[in-house]
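Encode chain A's predicted structure.
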Amino acid sequence: MFAMAEKLSFEAPRGMRDFYPEDMLWRNRVFDAFRAAGAAAGFEPYDACVVESYELLARKAGEEVGGQIYHFLDKSDRHLALRAEMTPTLARMVAQRQKELPLPLKWTTIAQCFRYERMTKGRKREHYQWNVDIIGEDSILAEVEVIGAAVDALRRMGLTTKDFRVHVSSRRFLGELLAASGIPAERHAQVFLALDKRGKMPDVEIAAMLKDGGLSDDDVAATFRIMGTKSCDGCAELTELFHLARIAGFADALEFDISVIRGLSYYTGIVFECFDTAGEFRAIFGGGRYDNLLTTIGGEPATAVGLGFGDVVVTELLKARLGADAVKTRAGVAVGFMFPEQRDAALALAMRLRAEGRQVDLALKPQKPKRFFAHADAHRAAKAVFIGPDDVEKGVARMKDLETREETELCLS
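Encoded structure for chain A:
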């Protein structure tokens, strides 16, 4: 006799998500804004396999990446991994055809990403990330186009600059300030790594990290003084960024913030992170200039600017600011029928309305009027047509507006 199997759990694996129709309303709102903002700014869509070589991810993020991602050996003992972000894949794709592709490239994608890490508010082990990148352009206009697209997407979702701010800084500028204080360039990478953890651990621990990186007590004190810098005067690239953002119409969404570091070592110039103004959530998106990544994986040198914009935090922010019912707008037409004899007329009407470009939810079996209208209302139809025997005989039905309750006649022939 076989032992009784354990009861199967119906929950999604820890950190992963199912999307029921009500969840898809929010996801579609976010994704539609991503696609529209990307298209409006001339970014070309692309996509790639979700599985990458482990070596590629380790070369970009270091061997310690193994503790942060899902990785495995396939049946041929190849070391593979689920992508944790899209940037290494983008770099690989560009490097593969670098001599053929016309630069600059303006590419965008919505990629599902997986990262095995401790879950906190706004962080899952699976998420979708909108990536917007420009490869092969060193003008500050590249930063303007990338940040501007992200601001446009947030506005399309229904948010305003009362809800968010893009905090911008420059690793180059910070490096100049450190050098002017006597901290040599070879120590800067360690300083950036430590300072990126401010806000996540006490300053006393940050100071310990800086000392472990070879800084003296005076150097540590100078570093913390630099972190109090409130103006980007003297930084030409940030001055130009703010100037161009004013022309582009989103300067009110920007603010200088020397504490924005972006811990990944491949960032080289302007860096940015977007936060909600109330400070309730993690970063909404982040990115910057990464001029050395292609050479890191073996490609030819190429300048680059990009951002990653996850779906988890912004969805939570939208629900908090717009209300949980914000996506439940009415749309389309529900078409139903009372008896089997009216089925053909209902199908013909539904197909005619669809051919006219309307969204139509056709009932699949006869229903009583009360049940049909309850279903149409529950599924947020804007209008409804219920066909009975008299309607078919007369060749005319009535279309009801489910908000105003007004009715208009509709020819069935």
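The chain has two domains: 21-322, 333-411.
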